[in-house]
Design brief:
Helix content: 40-55%
Order of helices and strands: HHHEEHH
Structural class: mainly alpha
Radius of gyration: 29 Å
C-alpha cells in the first residue's frame, strides 16, 4: 500500500521536517515501503519514524564538541537526544522488520531416563565385591 498524503504529512510533523528540508517525499515513501511487514498502520508509522531517526543518528555520529575562546558548542548532545528518540520507536521497527526477539518461544527439555539403563551403582554390587562391604 502506497503512502497517502495525510500519512506523509503526519510523518513529517512527527519527525519535525514540516518544511521538507531533510527528506524528500520519495525518500520517506521508500522508508515507508521498507517497513511494509508491520501488522498495523500505527506500527508502520512508528517504524518509519524509527528508520528516519536512525538515518539522523548516522549523520550525528560525526558531530563533535568544540571550544573556540569563550564560545563552546556541545554538538554531542544531538546524538544523545536522537538515541532517546530512537528508543521510543525501536520496538515497532523490530516488529515490522521481523527482528523482535521477544516473540521467540522459550522452553526447556528435561531428559527422561531410559528403562533398563545401568547406573554407576549397578556395577558395584555385592556379587562382584568391588566397592561394597
Amino acid at each position: 500500500m502506497a503512502i497517502t498524503a495525510q500519512q506523509l504529512a503526519d510523518i513529517r510533523a512527527d519527525i519535525g521536517d514540516e518544511s521538507s528540508a531533510i527528506w524528500t517525499d520519495e525518500e520517506i515513501s521508500r522508508v515507508w515501503e521498507r517497513v511494509s511487514g508491520a501488522t498495523s498502520t500505527n506500527q508502520r508509522h512508528e517504524a518509519t519514524l524509527a528508520l528516519l531517526v536512525r538515518q539522523l543518528l548516522g549523520n550525528a555520529v560525526m558531530l563533535r564538541d568544540y571550544t573556540a575562546g569563550a564560545t563552546a558548542e556541545k554538538q554531542s548532545q544531538v546524538f544523545s537526544q536522537l538515541q532517546k528518540l530512537y528508543a521510543l520507536y525501536k520496538d515497532s521497527l523490530d516488529s515490522a522488520l521481523g527482528t523482535d526477539r521477544r516473540q521467540v518461544a522459550r522452553g526447556w527439555v528435561k531428559g527422561a531416563p531410559r528403562q533398563g539403563r545401568e547406573f554407576p551403582d549397578d556395577y558395584y554390587d555385592d556379587e562382584r565385591n568391588d566397592r561394597t562391604s
